[in-house]
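User: For a reading group we're discussing how well predicted structures match intuition. Take SCD domain-containing protein. Before you show the prediction, I'll give you the sequence so everyone sees exactly what went in.
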Amino acid sequence: RAYSMLARADFSVIRPDIFFDKKYLKYPGWTLNDKEAVVRTAALKAFLRPCQSGSYDENVMDGVAEKFATRFADCTLDVDTSVQESALELLLFLARAGLLDSIQDEETWNQINLRALDTETTQTVRKLALEFIIEQIGAFDDDVADTDANAVERLNQMAGWVCHTLGAGDIP
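Assistant: Thanks. Here is the predicted 3D structure of SCD domain-containing protein, as structure tokens, for the group to look at:
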């Protein structure tokens, strides 16, 4: 099943018009729930590979992100850290491409963000989750100049997020 998903990823790069059609999306969607971690990882890579190669239609990927965002977020809590890492790589790509902007579910966002503070996972998962958080903080936007004042603002916003998260509420 893992080899099938990786082959599907290769075909998705060649013919995204076919393999990102609704009737074909159900297969990698199903394998996100497979009992074997290697298959779940391959399914996530089947979604990620066309994105990394640049061979995707933004409108189609927006639909994919909207349909599977919750499931991708669930994969960040998988028992296998390679699945967690692959899920965060995919979610980070989608966030950077602006394909998660339509997702309004705070629970999904929090589930992903909290991986940055999880001591029970790998450094890679925590790093990817932190990058995911940074994508959401306005002070880190590319168009913001690198000045001392902006660096302080970035730290303040990041510290504010950590305090809010650890304190389960707003902390002045």
